[in-house]
Design goal:
The complex is a heterodimer of chains A (118) and B (114). Chain A has 118 residues and is mainly beta. Helix content of chain A is 0%, strand content 51%. In chain A, the strands form three sheets. In chain A, strands 2, 5, 6, 10, 11 and 12 form a six-stranded mixed sheet that branches. In chain A, strands 3-9-8-7 form a four-stranded antiparallel sheet, with no helix packed on it. In chain B, strands 2, 4, 5, 6, 9, 10 and 11 form a seven-stranded mixed sheet that branches. In chain B, a hairpin with a 2-residue loop joins strand 5 and strand 6. Classes of the chains: A mainly beta (118), B mainly beta (114). The interface between A and B is medium-sized, with 21 and 24 residues.
């Protein structure tokens, strides 16, 4: 069975600074996908960034980037130039590749609550 | 249209009531999901539908009854719920074509059982 661990329940960062959220996972699969989802207070869960395990290059989306270390089973999220709107709960999630019999369901970590302070 | 909509936004019901939650998407996604989310916790998977057929039921009590009438619509029928069922209920959808497709989430229905 797969597990996802987020070891930082809460973090805070000053506006315009950089912050890194950690995520580790455990799987025996070779092909899978990793995601970071953001859930602002009382608002919708949205995808921040995704990484396909077969790709060695780290994914980036504007101010968001990941450090994917497949051998170490680590998938951290770096937020640069933090903005007040980045305040949210961040969930790391794992999904098996469909050819591994995946129904596309996500295995979530417990989340990291990020507060961006002015 | 890249949106998943859920109605109602809020629902308060007694333990003897029958109510339904509705989820709709028009992105052509053929996989749809129901999750339950308690405060400050990750979503917990309840049901998965693939091509309008139930493919995963995560041992959910029978007082929750899902239904997928067509490829755009997903319902969750509620009957004889308990106060501990109070939570945010999230719907999500996902394309089954292509390589890697993320789930798109709706805004949720906040359910309170009295």
């Amino acid at each position: 069975a797969q597990t996802v661990t987020q070891s930082q329940p809460e973090m805070s960062v000053q506006e315009a600074e950089t912050v890194t959220l950690s995520c580790t996972y455990d799987t025996s699969e070779n092909n899978y996908y990793l995601f970071w989802y953001k859930q602002p207070p009382s608002r919708q869960m949205i995808l921040v960034i995704r990484q396909e395990a077969y790709k060695q290059q780290n994914a980036t989306e504007n101010r968001f980037s990941v450090n994917f270390q497949k051998a170490a089973k680590s998938f951290s999220l770096k937020i640069s130039d933090s903005q007040l709107g980045d305040t949210a709960m961040y969930f790391c999630a794992f999904m098996k590749h469909k050819y591994g019999g995946s129904q596309g369901n996500l295995i979530f970590g417990k989340g990291t609550k990020l507060s961006v302070k002015p | 249209d890249t949106e998943v909509t859920q109605t109602p936004k809020h629902l308060v019901m007694g333990m003897t009531n029958k109510k339904s939650l509705k989820c709709e998407q028009h992105m052509g996604h053929r996989a749809m999901y129901w999750y339950k989310q308690k405060a400050k916790k990750p979503p917990e998977l309840m049901f998965v539908y693939s091509y309008e057929k139930l493919s995963i039921n995560e041992s959910v009590p029978s007082r929750f009854s899902p239904e997928c009438p067509n490829s755009s619509l997903l319902n969750l029928h509620l009957h004889a719920l308990q106060p501990e069922d109070s939570a945010l209920y999230l719907c999500a959808s996902r394309s089954l074509s292509g390589r890697c497709n993320e789930q798109f989430f709706g805004p949720g229905t906040r359910l309170t059982v009295l």
